[in-house]
Amino acid sequence: MTERLSDTARGTLLPPLLEAGWTVSDDGKTLSKTFEFEDFPNAFGFMTRAAIYAEKWDHHPDWTNTWNKVAVTLTTHDVGGLSALDAKLARKMDQLI
Amino acid sequence: MTERLSDTARGTLLPPLLEAGWTVSDDGKTLSKTFEFEDFPNAFGFMTRAAIYAEKWDHHPDWTNTWNKVAVTLTTHDVGGLSALDAKLARKMDQLI
């Protein structure tokens, strides 16, 4: 079951993501990061790799692509905030660049 | 050479796109449309097909994907408005859904 992250879980899962360039929104409900690539094929290649995991885990980002940039926002609508799935997908995205 | 669309060209190229659901921004500089699909794989599949033409024509959309939706904005930064490339990519996208 997907659950909203407890304060304890946030304290464990979020600091490494913040260190990797993710930011948490003021209301604490979303994680965001803008990835920058050499060009469009690299940016879209990243999206394609991430899309496969998003569908596999049934957890999809809100994301915007403008040529070499991909701006990602993660949240778990079902729980009205961040869940472990957001942290998992964020970590995976960092591995896929 | 890419040139900004003349009024005459706009009168020819834009009406069929407006009929197909595209909208022109108030300042006349961008074309936008939101495509809706059955699910994420279909939405991302559309993006993948469109990405190939975007790169082939060296003309890339600004686009946002949220699960089954893809919101596209087209403009030609080099000319500060719409060019024939925007109309061409818009028509292609309509063929790729």
Automatic annotation (TrEMBL), chains A, B:
Pfam families: Pterin_4a. GO terms for biological process: tetrahydrobiopterin biosynthetic process. It comes from the Bacteria. Keywords: Lyase. Transmembrane segments: none annotated. One of its GO terms (molecular function) is 4-alpha-hydroxytetrahydrobiopterin dehydratase activity. InterPro entries: PCD_sf (IPR036428), Pterin_deHydtase (IPR001533). Its EC number is 4.2.1.96. It catalyses: (4aS,6R)-4a-hydroxy-L-erythro-5,6,7,8-tetrahydrobiopterin = (6R)-L-erythro-6,7-dihydrobiopterin + H2O. PANTHER family: PTERIN-4-ALPHA-CARBINOLAMINE DEHYDRATASE (PTHR12599:SF0). Belongs to the pterin-4-alpha-carbinolamine dehydratase family. This is Putative pterin-4-alpha-carbinolamine dehydratase.
